[in-house]
Known about the structure:
Blueprint: H1 2-15, H2 18-27, E1 49-53, E2 56-59, E3 64-67, H3 70-73, H4 82-94, H5 103-115, E4 121-125, H6 128-143, E5 147-151, E6 154-155, E7 161-162, E8 174-178, H7 183-192, E9 197-202, E10 205-206, E11 212-213, H8 218-229, E12 232-236, H9 247-252, E13 258-262, E14 272-276, H10 278-281, H11 302-315, H12 318-340, E15 345-349, E16 352-356, H13 374-385, E17 388-389, E18 395-397, H14 404-423
Parallel strand pairs: 3-17, 5-8, 5-9, 9-12, 12-13
Antiparallel strand pairs: 1-2, 2-3, 4-14, 6-7, 10-11, 13-14, 15-16, 16-18
Helix pairs in contact: 1-13, 4-11, 5-11, 7-8, 12-14, 13-14
Amino acid sequence: MITTALDNAYRRYAAKRPISEQLHARARTFLPSGTTRSVLDFDPYPFTVASAAGCRLTDVDGLEYLDYLGDYSVGLAGHNPAAVREALAAVLEKGWSFGAVAAEEAEVARMLCERFESMDLVRFTSSGTEANLVAISLALKAADRSKVLVFDGGYHGGFLSFSRGRPSLNVPFDAVICDYNDLDSVREAFAQWPEQIGCVLLEPMLGSGGRIQADAGFLEGIRTLCDENGSVLVFDEVQTSRMSYGGGQALLGVRPDLTTLGKYIGGGLGFGVVGGAEKLMLQIARGGERSYDHSGTFNNNRFSMAASSAMLGTVLTRSSLDALFERGEDLRKRADHVLREHGFQATGWGSLMGFHPTDTPIRRASDLAGLDRRPVELLFHEMLERGVYTGKSGFATLSLPQTPETDDHFLTALEESVRVVAKAGF
């Protein structure tokens, strides 16, 4: 019955979006699957956005969506936020791509170091992917070791995806994969390679692997194991930095050696940064005892630097992030109540939420392995039918322009949609 319901959903979807269908068919002539991001490729074809403002999208067929995806957490400030738009307009007036230093980069660096206690110095990149590549490289150079310990379900960028059984185009780091929320698996890895693991890379909440919160004591245990074994602890806070003014690490009270950020801090433009302990970051300072070059044409591009300055200076205030976190915690609890009546559940932390077609506890990515994901796909299409855009894999993200009224709309759509899924035989 699920298959029949999905086929009906595809036909209903296509009937309303003929212009998107034409554009997608044309795009497939020149782009694999017709997109440049695998995550945006879904059946029968993705819709094409014509415009966006606040927390709403309008596609080329004139359909409007309440956006609860937020470009996979990039859109924390919403679409076309005034502070970012004004900052970019100023760049347009004065020029860009100088091949030289611009004043904004030092200002953004200062604001980041003042927010994140773990950051003595920072280095900018063009994306969170690049920031994680730099962080791993710095950590392994400092430790003079070869292996990086990561976690099943961990996604740290386009070339750093570590899911067992799911192929990905990864850079050839020598990775040891452990299970999230399983300290014993980490202890066993260190026991097996005590002189080789130079870096542990993880998110304070497992993101793409299921929006799974860290168990009490898990991150503290990782910190202790890194200290005992002389390894560098890297927190990927590309998503979780939204949890508070000082990121997820400030809420949890665990201090990493290196932290990576990206996504929303750039206000919707390409942005990444790695920051951390001075002794680690000085490896890319000119003239040091052990000095390595790190370049990137767009590391300090003026658009991203100006947008980041606006975001950090006026948008991402302590009060706005605290309110967003509390609203997210409340909305997830309400969503979980609705979903559990029909065999689903909501996971997540703060303003990030995941939907899963199981009512058994979820502590690691392997708890989700083997699940039939068709109910999630049908839920996604039913939400679209009700004008709410979420991630195709069951992902919802809050943004600042959303309101209690839009949250109520979201919950109503979710409740109606999960009932349809249940009737389809889930």
